Amino acid sequence: MALVFVIEDEPDLREVLRRNLELDGHEAAVAADGAEALAALASGLRPDLVLLDLSMPGLDGWEVLRRLKASPEPAVAAAPVVLLTGRSSELDRIRGGIEGAVQYLTKPVEMAALARVVAEALAADEAEARLAAQTAALQRLVQLERGDADGDAGPEPASGRRVRFSRLERRPEPPSGPGPAAAGERPASPRLVLDLSRLSAKQTKVLEAVGCQPTVRGASAQLGVSRSNVYASLRRIAAKLDIASVEELVILARERAG
């Protein structure tokens, strides 16, 4: 049995979700908006899974998701998040993956789909599932930018500028060198470099373990510490190196390890 936290402002849907989760053998906690949800977490609620509505008054789901994943409490930050929304735009699905959600349910929610998605999210390693969702979202974003989309990606902004989803997307640096790039040539994207000289020996060891292991669980086993300790170290390292998120730090560490 798992504790599932339903954050949904529609009372009828909130109750339907609660009852169906309980019928599936789970315990359900509920919140009617983002502020109530954050207050419950601050008071000690530690869910195994979060079902999060995107469109809510006050703090919307995007802001709640950001705060969940930035939480200093490892049990909160590591809880898998499934988004609930009436939106069907592919850009919303991409943004959800980039910002930390592991799966996505579109309203009206089919209860069979709810049971399946909840079971899958609970069975998976959250860090692996989040990284896989983020990687798939970033790959899809690249496809859309290259014009390789197979379907509707949603309307372009009126200004012609692409919507930025999160701090994971670095703004391109102005080109250097003589003159503009040749016609049709795409400027190279800047790459972040991990400056390990700014880290302590212990932090370097953690980052190297994360880089050479396929999962954070594997890194924690190699280091002989809990996953919570590894996540806490990664948050401190990301802050010290000015990396936007733990997820991005993990990607960079694995790229560095080759």
In short:
The protein is α/β, with parallel strands linked by helices.
SSE inventory with pairings:
Layout: E1 3-7, H1 11-23, E2 27-31, H2 34-42, E3 49-53, H3 61-69, H4 74-77, E4 81-85, H5 90-99, E5 103-106, H6 111-123, H7 126-146, H8 201-212, H9 216-223, H10 227-241, H11 246-257
Parallel strand pairs: 1-2, 1-3, 3-4, 4-5
Task: Please characterize this protein's 3D structure.
The chain is of the alpha/beta class. The chain folds into two domains: 3-138, Rossmann fold (3-Layer(aba) Sandwich); 196-257, Winged helix-like DNA-binding domain superfamily/Winged helix DNA-binding domain (Arc Repressor Mutant, subunit A, Orthogonal Bundle), CATH 1.10.10. 49% of the residues lie in helices and 9% in strands. The chain contains eleven helices and five strands. The chain has helices at residues 11-23, 34-42, 61-69, 74-77, 90-99, 111-123, 126-146, 201-212, 216-223, 227-241, 246-257, and strands at 3-7, 27-31, 49-53, 81-85, 103-106. It has a five-stranded parallel beta sheet with strand order 2-1-3-4-5, sandwiched between helices. Helix 2 (34-42) runs parallel beside helix 3 and helix 8 crosses helix 9. It starts with a strand and ends with a helix. Mean pLDDT is 80; it is low at 149-191.
